[in-house]
Design goal:
Helix content is 71%, strand content 7%. The chain is α/β, with parallel strands linked by helices. It has 2 domains: 8-95, Transcription Regulator spoIIAA, CATH 3.30.750; 135-371, no CATH class. Strands 1, 2, 3, 4 and 5 form a 5-stranded mixed sheet that branches. Helix 2 (56-71) packs across helix 3, helix 6 runs parallel beside helix 9 (251-290) and helix 7 (199-237) packs antiparallel against helix 12 (339-371).
């Protein structure tokens, strides 16, 4: 490359000229000049008119300089770049991974208010994005009602096995232990008033109406929701979702709908399993600790616990399933750039899924209380 002009950088305050052969083999001689460019206020122009050669290494140098000036508060504009150079620079800027942490912390009230405002605006944008994603998913599901042959049945059955059948042991164990805890704690309190027999109503209503389905949804959000986000997010990083769009496939229909429908179908079943195991654990503990025989337990359960308690719990299950599935897939579609983003979005998926499930359960409780059910 002896006949290629060496790269140079000429700093004229408001305009920075970059020229010559800005290629990887020659970056060592120009790196100090790029590092010497200090922060400044106002508009800054990066003029690339005099570039004679440009590769990925040079594009990374220019992108890093632009990012540094932008973080310092400047408005940076790149001008006079050949179309091929501009396209390469755009690709490098897109592929640059996000920072794990902010480089600087706010040091003034103005900076803190600015940071808070940006977070509020970002949260509002996230709410709008989630609502749009939820709408797309529901529209796609409604279309499949009239065109069921477009549903990917193999994918649906696979996700039902992963999220449903494989989750039965942990859900059953959770329900059994919750029943034991309720019986033990209830017995401790009710014995003070000589009302041990009412532990049956305590266990049955708590498990059937609230705890069975709520704790099942929390387990599914942590188990299946995180798996959905990680798998789809990895596809986003590897650009498989972009390839689907190129082939004319709808990622919502191919990836999201089978997962959401699988949860809608299996979560009521898992909730029912948790209810049965919770009642069994409560009956066993009541027999051991209070002397309430299984026959007496079943008799009081049949006489004093209405079927509406079970129905109310089962009504909540499909709504919980939709929330968990849509949140998990929406977070996966927000993955950007690197595997670090996949981990961050997976964590956010679990937290938001559990939070929204609890909020939805509270709203259902208020709704049914107003109806007097």
């Amino acid at each position: 490359m002896s006949g290629v002009s060496p790269p140079f950088l000429r700093d004229e305050d408001a305009e920075i000229h970059v020229g010559g052969a800005l290629v990887t083999a020659r970056l060592g001689g120009i790196e100090a000049d790029f590092d010497a460019v200090g922060a400044r206020s106002g508009n800054v122009t990066l003029n690339l008119r005099e570039l004679t050669a440009f590769d990925t290494g040079g594009a990374w140098m220019v992108a890093a300089l632009k990012s540094r000036l932008t973080q310092a508060g400047s408005e940076v504009e790149i001008t006079h770049a050949l179309p091929a150079y501009a396209a390469l620079l755009a690709n490098v800027e897109t592929a640059t991974p996000e920072r794990d942490e902010e480089v600087t912390q706010p040091r003034s009230v103005t900076a803190m208010l600015d940071s808070f405002g940006r977070k509020v605006a970002g949260a509002w944008g996230g709410v709008i994005s989630f609502n749009g994603f939820l709408g797309e998913t529901l529209v796609c599901i409604s279309r499949l009602i009239f065109r069921p042959w477009r549903l990917r049945w193999a994918s649906l059955v696979t996700h039902m096995q992963d999220a449903g059948l494989n989750a039965v042991p942990i859900v059953a164990l959770m329900g059994f232990l919750i029943g034991i805890v309720l019986a033990f704690q209830g017995a401790t309190q009710l014995q003070r008033f000589g009302a041990e027999v009412f532990v049956v109503e305590l266990i049955s209503i708590s498990v059937l109406r609230e705890l069975g389905i709520l704790l099942t949804a929390i387990i599914v959000a942590g188990r299946s929701g995180s798996a959905f986000t990680a798998s789809v997010g990895s596809m986003k990083v590897q650009e498989e979702i972009d390839a689907m769009r190129t082939l004319g496939l709808d990622p919502i229909e191919v990836l999201v709908v089978p997962r959401v429908l699988a949860l809608v179908l299996v979560l009521p079943i898992l909730g029912f399993v948790a209810n049965l195991c919770g009642l069994f654990g409560g009956a066993l503990m009541s027999w051991i600790d209070l002397g309430v025989s299984p026959g007496m337990f079943l008799t009081r359960l049949y006489e004093n616990t209405g079927v509406w308690h079970l129905v109310i719990g089962m009504i909540k299950a499909p709504f919980f399933a939709v929330v968990i599935g849509v949140v998990a897939c929406w977070q996966a579609f927000q993955v950007r750039g690197s595997s670090t983003s996949v981990g961050q979005r997976t964590t956010a998926s679990v937290v938001q899924g559990i939070f929204l499930v609890i909020v939805l359960d509270a709203l259902f409780s208020i709704f049914f209380a107003q109806l007097g059910i």
